[in-house]
Design brief:
By secondary structure, the chain is α+β, with helices and mostly antiparallel strands. It has helices at about 25-45, 60-75, 80-95, 150-160, 170-175, 215-225, 250-265, 270-275, 290-300, 305-315, 325-340, 345-365, 405-415, 480-490, and strands at about 100-105, 115, 120, 125-130, 140-145, 150, 195-200, 200-205, 210, 230-235, 240-245, 275-280, 320, 365-370, 395-400, 420-425, 435-440, 445-455, 470. InterPro entries: ClpP/crotonase-like_dom_sf (IPR029045).
């Protein structure tokens, strides 16, 4: 089962376009929020597969509750910051990374984020100071509470009410640290005085919120993912082959780097077979196209071997595409884009999909149903004549908390083989809705997330995520620290 164009769950609010008209007065911002939430609700209701998905009867209720909540906030909006918060509250309440909408105001309207001079990171059981501009709070201090509110409750009210989904463990790793990032939300109370615990002692600190420095941006990214390696192979320790895959949505240079890595793996496969271990580094990866992880799996284990196991895993899975005029137009445009990029196989897939959707649309059908890619073999784990020598060395997969969509597809593929071990953080989760397109509102102020298909009988269910066999609780997710974690585990084998 290939997922060529799945996008990562949107946990933030990127500014992608310029609005045609922007409100000026408070009452105009209020009406803009009301109108855009109503428009986002209508577009989602009319186009999202969840509206018609009998396996997910709760979708319509969540969407209606998101509309109610969003309009409740919208009634209090007076400016651009309130507008953004109301849209994000709608998005978060849908409780689906592949549904909802996000503001897309022009960059000139963006708020200068503020911070209290330190960055915090979630590490399984709490929020810890990752780095600070001074010696207070000390690095590694646990944040106990702020203004008398336990830190977990404060993260729920200040962060997850607007960003992400608190039900997913990985979201805590990726989003909880944003408690100490002020983006101008008028509907929350910024922490004023927090209690920290370090070396068994507790102390209180009054926070001083100032414009976030360049350090603040760098520390926030590093606290979630560590350093970022370029796409490709390296060998940080003798016999430890490291495959960096920081994105499954690469640009032209990244696509060339992936192809070079796959070519190198196939040409020097004996090096992999005799390695002490291979590491698939997914730090910084939030999704994109599953083609890259499927190609990596084929280069590592053998393409036919991977295809048999994946086909067996998804044997009962069907793909139901929502047949609509907008979806046909989207995939036709995507096929043209893939042609320009020279991506032959994905282009063929997109054009075949248009040929399937167009007749369904003309018949007035809601769905165009696609069965699995192939018949499941009777014994998918058995090797057959023509298979390359099996790869039996350990494969460690480094999983970041934001791993979702096509990043989760990678985990589906890799874990078909028993020599795979996940290390890092819990992943995020997907719904069963994929192949996202983005539809900007006529106002230009917000963009709606519209998936075009739903997986029926997918083994990984709605909202399910992966837990690591080895949780890396160290604050620093540097390559060096991860190498040490893997070396320690190899010694136990």
């Amino acid at each position: 089962m290939k997922n060529y164009f799945a996008l990562a769950a949107l946990a933030a609010f990127p500014y992608l376009a310029s609005a045609t008209t922007l409100p000026q007065a408070p009452e105009q911002w209020r009406q803009a929020a009301i109108d855009d939430i109503e428009a986002g609700y209508r577009i989602t209701q009319e186009n999202h597969p969840g509206t018609y998905d009998q396996a997910n009867p709760g979708f319509a209720g969540n969407l209606a509750a998101a509309r109610t909540l969003g309009l409740r906030y919208a009634a209090k909006v007076t400016d651009a910051r309130g507008y953004e918060a109301a849209i994000l509250a709608f998005h978060a309440r849908v409780k689906d990374g592949h549904a909802g909408m996000y503001p897309s105001l022009p960059a000139g309207e963006s708020y200068q984020p503020r911070w209290p001079g330190f960055v915090a990171a979630w590490r399984g059981d709490g929020l810890y100071v990752y780095a600070a501009t001074g010696s207070v709070p000390a690095k590694g201090s646990r944040v106990v509470s702020c203004d008398g509110v336990p830190i977990r409750e404060l993260v729920k009210s200040n962060v997850f009410a607007f960003l992400g989904r608190e039900e997913e463990d990985g979201m805590w790793w990726g989003q909880a640290g944003k408690l100490f990032l002020d983006w101008g939300n008028p509907f929350i109370n910024l922490p004023k005085r927090c209690r920290f615990e370090h070396s068994g002692k507790q102390s209180d600190l009054t926070l001083n919120w100032t414009p976030r420095s360049k350090e603040g941006y760098e520390w926030l990214d590093a606290s979630q993912n560590g350093d970022q390696l370029p796409i490709g192979l390296s060998e940080p320790q003798p016999g430890l082959i490291w495959a960096a895959m920081p994105s499954f949505h690469p640009d032209e240079q990244g696509r060339a780097a992936y192809q070079a890595m796959f070519d190198e793996m196939k040409a020097n496969r004996q090096r992999l077979l005799s390695a002490r271990a291979v590491v698939a580094d997914l730090r910084h990866n939030g999704g994109g196209s599953s083609l890259w992880s499927l190609s990596f799996s084929g280069a590592l284990w053998g393409e036919a071997r991977v295809q048999r196991r994946v086909a067996a895993y998804f044997a009962r899975t069907e793909t139901w595409y929502r047949a609509s005029k907008e979806n046909v137009q989207f995939f036709a445009s995507l096929a043209d884009q893939l042609h320009r990029e020279g991506q032959v196989e994905p282009e063929r897939w997109a054009r075949e999909l248009v040929e399937k959707l167009q007749p369904a649309l003309q018949r007035g059908d809601i769905w165009a149903v696609s069965k699995g890619d192939a018949e499941a073999p009777a014994h998918p784990e058995a090797d057959v004549e023509g298979d390359p020598a099996p790869f039996t060395r350990p494969l460690y997969v480094i999983v970041p908390g934001q791993c979702a969509s096509a990043c989760l597809d990678a985990l589906d593929y890799f874990t078909r083989f028993p020599n795979t071990k996940l290390i890092g953080a819990p992943s995020s989760a997907d719904s069963t809705y994929m192949e996202v397109r983005r539809q900007q509102l006529d106002s230009g102020r917000a963009t709606v997330i519209v998936p075009t298909k739903v997986y029926v009988n997918r083994p990984r269910g709605n909202g399910e995520f992966y837990q690591p066999a080895i949780t890396v609780s160290a604050l620093e997710w540097s390559t060096q620290n991860l190498v040490q974690e893997i070396e320690a585990d190899l010694k136990k084998r």
